[in-house]
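Structure ticket #2291
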Amino acid sequence: MDEYQWFLEGRPVVQGVAEVWAQWEFSTGHEFECLTIRFRSILDPDYLAEKLALGIQAAALKGWQDDDFHDLYDWLREGANDCVGSSMVRGTHRTGFLIFKVTCAAVSHTEVITEVRTTLTDTALDGTPLSADGRA
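Resolution: structure written out below.
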């Protein structure tokens, strides 16, 4: 098997959440490729940022450090806030050895689909190599 995926679909139990799922992708040699988490929910930037950051933290990906949570939360919250009054927001962010790509798309005035794709990296966003502690 060269590549494979694990797909986990949650049953939303919170009012305002219509869909939630996570997908882990692996490449040859069972190497982690990426983690994608997707929510379809009401537009609540605080809720979305917290749940997405907690989901990524719970995945315990190589390179994740507990201090990364607040930086990721703040960035996700800012992105979700930018989705207010906009049809779509996209962004890329790096914390340590992880790169996050977010898309927040408005489905209606009150509902959005938010997806975060997390991958490992050894370079900063500008392409410079990272040090052993994940700094540019």
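Closing remark: The chain has a mean pLDDT of 90.
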